[in-house]
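Supplementary material to the annual report.
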Amino acid sequence: MRLYSTRNPSSFVSLEEAVFKGLPDDNGLFMPEYIPQLPDSFFERLKDYSFQEIGLEVCRHLFNGAIPENDLRAIIEKSITFPAPVVKLDDETYVLELFHGPSLAFKDFGARFMARLMSYFNKGNGRELVILVATSGDTGGAVAAGFYKTPGIRVVILYPSGKVSYLQEKQLTTLGENITAVEIDGTFDDCQALVKKAFLDKDLTGNIRLSSANSINIARLVPQSFYYFEAYKQLPSDKKPVVFCIPSGNFGNLTAGIFAKKMGLPVHQFIAATNINDVVPMYLSTGEFTPRPSAPTLSNAMDVGNPSNFTRILDMYCSTWNNIKEDIKGYAFNDQQTEDAMRRTFQVHGYVLDPHGAVGVLALEAFQVENPRTKGVILETAHPSKFLPDVERILNCKIDVPKRLAILSKKEKHSVPMGIAFDQFKAWLLDAYQ
Ligand SMILES: *Cc1c(COP(=O)(O)O)cnc(C)c1O
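Predicted assembly:
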């Protein structure tokens, strides 16, 4: 397998290089040279495949020999360790629950797979790998859990003190072992600036093997395509065309869905659901892509003003607006509408949505007004208990909290307090990891 940069389609790197670098030097994004069509026999027998076997089949074709099959199987068996069940709300509405992993959000799939892949490529190397990652909350928990106890890899997570939720902080600061949380007396941007400086510092890169766990790493997208097949497999085989509705921020999930379609999954339509940060729905209706600063909402993991994976979507459609808007319909909703959808879905179906999934429900409803008799699958990207205070206020009742989240409150926080001066951070890194 080879990958190119969206800025330079004629120069290629290996999968290993793309995974360790995260971003190409030219600031484009890595894309697979080919996204292969899976064989008919795979689709004919899809219902017989386990979730892990689906992952193996996708990777075998996509990676095309870059990793021997036995190693690939081991990577998948260690990363796809929880299910992605489809729950029926009615004959036209299904929810794909992607929150059964350790951090209760779909990001667990990407983080775990990336951790296993990095660990595999790192094996021959005697030197320890140190992953630096800045988080505003959500990504950090998935990355921490994903890399937890991974041999040969240590993880340093920088987060802004007082600016992540109580449970998010617990997810970052209670694991210990190879995971260290650095609590920065500053903003998320300060955290990101420190990480960026570290990668540019010759002293650091000369003495410590550094890598990033950036959200645009291709290793995070690949496993996100598995669950589109897994969802399709669980749907009833009637004649209604299948549409996937994706609550979106940086558009990684939607990009992975397009990968699945290119591999042959019969997806009739993608629906991009956003909150008021609607840069992509605006592009779909006007043809103009105009990034702008994000505005805060209830569905805060989708508060993105310049979606990073949009470049990949443009690349796959050769930047042709007409083709993109054929395949993807966009809808945007505000917080009031989101709250209403959560209450309505609870009253009508007895189903508790999180705010991100609720934006998805709204978008599917809007689409189905004009496109009835379609089978809609909404990606439920997080467990509602991750947003407990909001969800309980909106539904006006107590909701169940999964055990793995409940026990976090009892665990003790460990963090390394740090200012925003780079020299202090650098000295600490050299001292701890050299
Ligand atoms: C990250 C996240 C999203 C946005 O996903 P993208 O792939 O960036 O579009 C949506 N919902 C939740 C709960 C998330 O954590």
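Residues 83-103+224-399 form a domain with the Rossmann fold fold (CATH 3.40.50.1100).
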